[in-house]
Design brief:
Chain lengths: 460, 460
């Protein structure tokens, strides 16, 4: 019996899709091509995931796990002959422990559902990113997603207390403990967080919840130079401490495009400033926090760190400021673009951006280079548009963006992962011995190489 | 040529100790027996560590790495025929990046030296524990140490940005990046953090530093019941937010012994309360933070959560309150004692402590059971003295403390690790498939099993 028949028999025929139903699924955000997989299975439980993987392992069938398909590096692209394991039916929130502040969820729940469920309990799930409505928590864990509030709460890794994953051979590794501290042996969950489905399939997660902030203070500021914004960040950390929950920087090319029609955002500050930043503090004392935030801003203006500022005084105003940062879709107006996500020491950022621009300018006559990102986390997004596209152009643009990272000991992936697209660049940020050790771990956990083959690790 | 001669030739003879010089080293805190190792090597650099391990790997020589020898579970005990690899000469602080808030250190630097160096730069290294003067940062990393401020800053794992480790075969895995975010491939450093020297030898670390708090508010409180203390914790988290930096609970047996001569501490609150807690907030606004802290305490008194409180108003008063919590040495007055370190959901703690007492009381006529710990982290330390000792007694006490954890899905090790002593109990907190996967990783990284053999994983 072939694998598909066997899976149909074991899971029921509505759990196995083929042909047009698979192609319609698509390949993910920004990828026009249909899903190329052999078939798609939709298990209903961890046990069924285990069953699927055991069969695939036996028959050396490559498997690509699908969450919300919102990744940006091709980590979920399924090629011909590969089987898609969709976790769409593992979509239950199993338990909330409000006193212990934990939530136990299945991997296919969307990030937004997790957030809303926490909110309904008077708590906060701290991970937040633009794709919240579509991305799944399993995908967030598999890619160690970052997002808007990392400076305050950490990345996805910091939100995971317990985790259940299925290994390539179907073994279920279940560590659904709710403890903040657990040094009983190796911390196996760390292996699966951020390994992009290549070491195991995450099926259930115990998430850490936080007390809900009782105050929000948000401002958009403009500064006279990148150096001033860096000083402002240091001052914000000194003055606002861990209330500082976002510090998003935008170079003027970004600010201009998201505040110019057809973008429908307001323009809270004039164009023409050298740099902008969105600053947010989340606190616990509504009465005092706003005064403290405004005092901080006032002193920053006096010290020359801030030229102009727009402070949100109502929730709609706050949402309008965040809408600027979230209007990434406006960048499609630049024509064909390439999106990058790098991290590097803050002290090296200004020269880095200058060098990328200079390299692009050397090769193209009017390149667009739009930069924004999570300054507090050392993470920049670089969008490059050079008026043409295709593999050869892409390679040249990648060199312009990645080569200047090497001297600065930066990373080619701050939060998006490696997937398919960044594999050729992994060695820009990792040495040969590190990559060899990654391979050793991959072989130990997935000896037949059936899990998301060809992702993360470059071909040998 | 035998291994010792070879090492002497390669490193110089003052780098290799034998005989009495080794025995004098001792076996660690609370262990009267001399160090039983064959020899002790003291490499001066990562390259020399690599050289030692390469030779040991070739000759299948078991190696036990030594830091400050302050562990509590026998993780550094070196038996006959084993070689001690002491990192005492890797004791340099290599660099501080004050703007990026990182410190690059060698593994043999003491925790206190790291703390003081950060302080001199106007910054904070957030890990803190009683053994600070002797323990090394390499040991803290290898055991994922916890300590007093985990509730605010996380465990050692959260303080590590980059890490260099040497594998069993001498390969140097060097990831000394300073980035908060780096999703370029598997996060290999997570493997070495908390694996107690069984997967590699940590040689250098890039540590995360924090802005130094500008205000401290500390109080000792007494409450009418454990339930009230739990409510107080929730209220503290809601009111003080992430300023809450410590929430240490002490059952009366602990408070009484550390405030009764010969203990030289003051007695800030009367004996006779059902439970005590040490609460500390670290903030950024000296003027407002104290008022907020006192308002929080005042409301807690009014709400009946707190019966009596002593607030520190000067640094010496603050130190005096912490001295109570740190007077763990007073527990030696109980006679022969066994020390435990468990974690479990807060909601199950009260019944857990009752069950442990009940079990001890069933077997011994006047057992001592002293409980204290990091309530905010779900972590309790249990000290049991039953008037007798020896392996059979120890086993019975261990059953009394560990058995009640199983129904509560707790961990036999919150922060002390597994080492030698907790190996038989690992399966109380980890399933057979988890332990099998730990073994798989151990074999992948240390195929000849030379690194800290017999630690962490129970014999097969």
């Amino acid at each position: 019996m072939d694998l598909i028949d066997r899976l149909r028999q074991e899971l029921g025929s509505d759990s196995v899709l083929e042909g047009e139903e698979v192609r319609q699924r698509g390949s993910g955000w920004g990828r026009p091509e249909p899903c190329g997989a052999l078939a798609l299975v939709r298990p209903r439980s961890t046990e069924e995931v285990s069953l699927v993987l055991r069969s695939c392992h036996e028959m050396r069938q490559p498997v690509v796990t699908h969450g919300g398909l919102t990744g940006l590096v091709g980590g979920a692209v399924a090629g011909e002959g590969e089987l898609v394991l969709s976790l769409e039916r593992l979509n239950r929130i199993e338990e909330v422990d409000a006193q212990g502040r934990t939530m136990t969820v299945q991997a296919g729940v969307t990030l937004q559902a997790v957030q809303e469920h926490a909110e309904a309990e008077g708590l906060l799930f701290a991970l937040d990113l633009g794709a919240r409505g579509s991305c799944t928590i399993g995908g967030n864990v598999a890619t160690n997603a970052g997002g808007n509030h990392v400076i305050r709460y950490g990345m996805t890794r910091a939100q995971v207390l317990g985790l259940e994953a299925v290994l390539a051979d179907g073994t279920v590794i279940s560590d659904l403990g709710k403890m903040l501290k657990n040094n009983a042996g190796y911390d196996l969950k760390q292996l699966f967080i951020g390994s992009e489905g290549t070491l195991g399939v995450v099926t259930r997660i115990v998430l850490r919840l936080w007390p809900r902030p009782r105050s929000e203070a948000t401002a958009l500021v403009a500064s006279a130079s990148f150096g001033k914004v860096v000083e402002l960040l240091a001052e914000a950390q000194r003055r606002l401490g861990s209330d500082l929950a976002a510090f998003e920087v935008m170079w003027p090319e970004f600010y201009d495009i998201v505040t110019t029609p057809p973008a429908r955002n307001q323009r809270p500050l004039e164009h023409g400033h050298p740099i902008y930043a969105l600053v947010e503090a989340l606190g616990t004392s509504p009465d005092e926090d706003r005064a403290r935030f405004e005092a901080f801003l006032g002193e920053a203006v006096e010290a020359g760190l801030v030229e102009d500022a727009a402070v949100a005084t109502t929730p709609p105003e706050r949402r309008a400021l965040w809408a600027l940062r979230d209007s990434v879709d406006q960048l499609a107006r630049l024509g064909p673009i390439y999106t990058f996500d790098v991290s590097l020491p803050i002290a090296t950022m200004e020269s880095y951006v200058a060098e990328v621009r200079e390299r692009l300018g050397r090769e193209w006559s009017d390149p667009k280079c739009v930069v924004f990102g999570h300054l507090g986390d050392g993470n920049l997004h670089v969008i490059a548009g050079v008026g043409e596209s295709g593999p050869a152009v892409r390679l040249r643009v990648e060199h312009a963006v990645y080569d200047p990272l090497r001297a600065r000991a930066g990373s080619v992936s701050a939060e998006h992962g490696i997937g398919l697209e960044k594999r050729p660049w992994l060695s820009w940020s990792r040495g040969p011995d590190e990559i060899a050790l990654m391979r050793r771990i991959k072989v130990a956990l997935d000896p037949k190489g059936i899990l998301n083959p060809g992702k993360v690790l470059p071909p040998e």
